[in-house]
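User: Can you predict the 3D structure for this chain?
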Amino acid sequence: MKVILRQDYEVLGHIGDTVEVKDGYARNYLIPRDIAYAATPGALQALEEEKKQFARRQEKAKKTAENLATTLGSVSVTLKMKVGEEDKLFGSVTSQMIAEQLSAEGITIDKRCIELAEPIKALGVYEVPVKLHPQVGSQIKVWVVAE
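Assistant: Here is the predicted structure, written as structure tokens:
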């Protein structure tokens, strides 16, 4: 069965691609989840309109992310943690803690956008990358100090 993809789908392709899939896969999975249309002439016209709307939404999301990135460039977060011998932390600083501190300062960011390679386990100043949009990123300065 030929279907037209309504959204990017890793396994099959990108928006607007016409792909050949098995009938059951199309009827039971792709079409009910609004991932694809059956390939008909009317569906092609509807898809063109959806592409335009998708592009507008993506552009709006990118502009919002760019504005937030400029705000985050000047933000620093201070986290007070309990420390033991040799300035080692009890526990560690996670992306959840950074997101909570940012929300206390009035900036709402999902913790999954904060890209910590591994939790912070020592005192110091860290540059933490934040991925706000696939094409927009920023850095937050995180100060970890003794309580």
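The mean pLDDT is 89. The beta strands are 2-5, 18-20, 36-38, 76-81, 88-93, 120-122, 124-133, 136-146.
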